[in-house]
Amino acid sequence: MTGTFALAAAWLALAVLATILASHLRISIALVEILVGIAAGAAAEHYIGPDSLGVGAEWLRFLATMGAVMLTFLAGAELEPRVLRAKWKEVIVVGLVGFAAPFLGCAAVARYVLAWDARASWLAGIALSTTSMAVIYAVMLETGFNRTEFGKGILGACFINDLGTVIALGLLFAPFTYKTAVFLGVCVPGIAILPRLTRWLTHRYAHRTAAVRTKWVLLVLLGLGALATWSESEAVLPAYIAGMVLAKAAAEDHHWVRRLRTLTVGLLTPFYFIRAGSLVSIGAVLGAPLVVLLLLGGKVASKVFGLYPAVAAFRSDRTERWYYTLLMSTGLTFGTISALYGFTHGIVSREQYSFLVTVVVASAVAPTMIANFLFLPQHLLPRVSMLDEEEGIARDSGGEPSVDVENGNARNGD
């Protein structure tokens, strides 16, 4: 047990370091955690020995997987249902093109240019088809676009893009056996009644029992995850759909979502992102930089040439088109989830996994910087009063809601 505590402390020390660096560099914490994981993994392997960080420990793998599951659930829960209804045509067209163009383009590059086998090529297409909800959401909050119809349209299209990734991952690599039929037979009706059960549980017990909804969501996600892994699928697949169907409940109670986000980002996702980074082989990347450049070029080019005409159908201003297109060209969370799925299931080698994660990290940085420095549509930035700004800072600072520790109830009654 002493060794487990020491190893957990070492990993959380890396998480704290990543948080401090992200604060000073003003970039996504997930991105910095991956970079810290890459550096820590390389240093530990060189100076101590293989697996000295304990990336294969069962408890650590569980925490990392749970981090991916919770992050996936929150990505689905963050979507505002009214956005899809109000801008359904734009969201669906841009989202589907944003998925299909890089999925096919990057798979073709991997298969016909890099000569990867068919399964690895399709996995590369999936991993590089993603759009980073984490990066885009952070940019929307920083600029204030999350309060505009322009920003909400981007978030909705990002959701459809990543939904395509999740579905493709399940359809292409989940084995279809009787277990799959059982999995679908339980998940479909279970997720269908999930909003009603959650609503009843909230109204009946939220004001009397400590954090009942948080416990309920964890129960649902763990149960669905167990069923998914039993059917030889991936635990993140049902989590995304569960988040989507509970998006209305989440939109009605931001304090509850914030508590879930604190649990996820504070404890679980550091293990996921640092572990994902520690599995990258720096030697493989430095030994074949042309492979990274080809995959990165394939992702960005297919995203841009596919998305720009689609966005132009809904946006007439040039800066709006390029800003929209470049933000939709980013990738991070689901890209690393897909790449790690491929590596742990033997679909791609460690070298191929290293190339994919390196490209995913690069795609999270370059398009975002270009968009913000060269194509920021300042005419769409919301004009707010000083009081609004102060309230926004208080709301988005990540502070905890007022909680009655004795009863476990927040001000909103959970």
Low-confidence stretches: 384-413
The number of distinct β-strands equals: 2
Indicate the mean pLDDT: 83
Question: Level of helix content?
Answer: over 70%
Tell me the Rg in angstroms: 21 Å
Q: How many helices in DSSP terms?
A: 19
Report the principal-axis shape.
globular
End-to-end distance: 34 Å
The ordered string of helix (H) and strand (E) elements is HHHHHHHHHHHHHHHHHHHEE
Order of neighbouring strands in the sheet with most strands: 1-2
**Which structural category do the helix and sheet elements fall into?**
mainly alpha
- Proportion of strand residues: under 5%
The biggest beta sheet is recorded as:
2 strands, antiparallel
Structure explained in plain terms:
The structure is a single chain. The chain is an all-alpha fold and 414 residues long. It has a two-stranded antiparallel ribbon with strand order 1-2. α1 crosses α13, α2 packs parallel to α13 and α3 packs parallel to α11. 47% of the residues are buried. The C terminus is likely disordered.
